[in-house]
Design brief:
Number of strands: 15
Shape: globular
Order of helices and strands: HEEEEEEEEEEEEEEHEH
Strand content: over 45%
Radius of gyration: 17 Å
Length: 251
């Protein structure tokens, strides 16, 4: 009940003392921004949900004449900065006929900040969660904005089409070698890394973006396979200070 209360307060722009920092029950309201590019869409729907009465449907469409990026995401600002520790979670569902092969990268969540003032990068993601084929991947970003290093965690879990999956992340965002990064998939811990750097050497806030980013289309310069329309549903998106705050099944 506490989580649901905080979600309601968040939706109306109010504040309260509790461990859940924010929660969204699959609606387009309450976000700091909705980011769609080219022909991409973010829609609130009621026919496919994890629980409750609504979910978010993210769509992207490949265009061979377009050279830009393919984001369809919701955005929550100021979710973490260096020195913080938190839990972050969401439920997602791929379309029934999702084409896994040939393998191409599709990002489903990321933490990102604007570094345009550094003249070394613009919007730079730190941690990301993505699919490559039917495998779940994640990563952390280390170093400085002008000298970035990526530590990738591959083949964490096998993702199925047409069913709801849960992801929870716990991270201690550090740059002194004392950080940790953990990830759960469908209730099973599939990643646990201790004594690592988990973000870059900067104290600005990062956003939490959840949605479909068809980054492989841009990075590879083409669509692999034949499925040029991709759809992912999201529900129960949250962040907090305990696992229960972020677990879609517990609030």
């Amino acid at each position: 009940m506490i989580g649901k209360t905080i979600a309601a307060l968040f939706a109306f722009g109010l504040t309260a003392q509790a461990s859940q920092l924010f929660g969204n029950h699959g609606t387009t309201s309450g976000w700091d921004a909705i980011n769609t590019e080219h022909q991409g869409t973010v829609q609130q729907v009621s026919n496919v949900v994890y629980e409750g009465s609504s979910a978010l449907k993210m769509t992207q469409i490949y265009d061979p004449s377009y050279s830009g990026r393919y984001h369809s995401e919701v955005v929550k600002s100021n979710v973490y900065k260096r020195g913080d520790t938190g839990f972050y979670g969401f439920a997602f569902r791929l379309q029934d006929d999702w084409q896994f092969s040939p393998a191409q990268s599709y990002n489903i969540a990321q933490f990102i900040a604007d570094f345009s003032d550094t003249h070394c990068d613009d919007y730079m993601p730190s941690s990301m969660v993505w699919l490559l084929g039917n495998q779940l991947y994640s990563r952390v970003k280390q170093g400085t904005i002008c000298n970035q290093h990526i530590q990738t965690f591959p083949n964490l879990a096998t993702v199925s089409a047409g069913v709801w999956h849960k992801v929870e992340i716990q991270s201690s965002w550090k740059t002194d070698g004392t950080g940790y990064y953990k990830l759960w998939f469908d209730g099973t811990k599939v990643l646990e890394q201790f004594n690592i750097d988990t973000t870059i050497e900067d104290d600005r806030y990062f956003e939490f973006r959840v949605g479909l980013y068809a980054n492989g289309w841009h990075d590879d310069g083409t669509l692999k396979g034949t499925q040029g329309t991709r759809q992912v549903w999201y529900d129960e998106i949250a962040a907090g200070t305990t696992f229960a705050d972020a677990d879609p099944a517990q609030w």
